[in-house]
Amino acid sequence: MNTSGSKTSAYKVLFNGEYILAVNKKPGILVIPTPKKERWTLTSILSEDFGQTLYPCHRLDKSTSGIILYAKDKATQQKIMQQFRNRRIEKKYIALALGKLPKKGRIKSIVKDKYNPFKKEKFAITLYRTLKHCRKFSVIEVKTLTGRTNQIRIQFAQIGHPLLGERKYAIAKKIPVKFSRPALHAYTITFIHPITRQEITLKADLWPDMAEKFKKEGINLFNKENA
Q1: For residue 19, pLDDT beyond 90
Q2: No. of helices (H) and no. of strands (E), the chain
Q3: What 3-state DSSP class applies to 29?
Q4: pLDDT for res 112
Q5: Which of 71, 105, 181, 214 could anchor a disulfide with 219, C-beta 3.0 to 4.6 Å?
Q6: If DSSP codes are grouped into helix, strand and coil, which group holds residue 15?
Q7: What is the CA radius of gyration of the chain?
Q8: Does the pLDDT of residue 3 top 60, yes or no?
């Protein structure tokens, strides 16, 4: 999996086909511009690097790393986005959450981004399973059944287990384990290719900040115990 592009640290290519491009997004970069109209976003960098307009099919928070799907034409984009709307695409995340969580759980709650007054309150459902308990936090695999803005970050803060590095929905000084960003990585996605109709599953390696945390704690994400 080679890093490529003029902004070489922004992404890693996971899949590059005739209709679809999938990349592993670095944390700290926007997928699309905000109303501030930032020049450099993942979408602008990819479009420049590949010499064509690319169309994001979904988004991740600026601070979240992991898989993003892009379409190479608007028709393909609409077909993939329809799969998201119909909840036919499965996305799983790896997160580090404060405290000791149960082996598995289901969070159902109303979420609202308090920093965006134009966002309405919406019902959200999140599933998780605990992969490993560490000294002060848990490594969890998370699957969202609804696609609300900042859903994972909000809901784990709601239940008293904010993500490490959370500064928006929890008080950072109350989280004893420090991390430079909310510890969230979109690590796998399964979807149906809109043209070939084949099922595709992609996985994205952790970026160095989370990988280093795993190394220090002796965590092997892909070993049989955690599979």
Answers
A1: yes
A2: 4, 10
A3: coil
A4: 77
A5: 214
A6: strand
A7: 17
A8: no
Q: Which residues contact 46 (CB under 8 A, 6 or more apart)?
A: 5, 11, 21, 23, 54, 70
Bridge partners of 11, per DSSP, are: 25
Q: What are the tens digits of pLDDT across the range 52-78?
A: 999 999 999 999 999 999 999 999 999
Token pair recorded at residue 73:
């034409």
Which residue carries 């960098």 as its tokens?
Answer: 45
Tell me the pairing of strands 90-98 and 55-56. unpaired
Give first-to-last CA distance, the chain, whole Å. 21
- The closest alpha carbon to 182, from 158, 157, 159, belongs to 157
As beta bridge partners, residue 111 has: 122
d(CA 135, CA 50): 44
Rounded Cα distance between 166 and 180, Å, is 9
Sequence length of the chain is 227
Look-up of token digits 């929890």? 170
Phi, psi (deg, nearest 5) at residue 174: -90, 0
Assigned token pair, 30? 């926007």
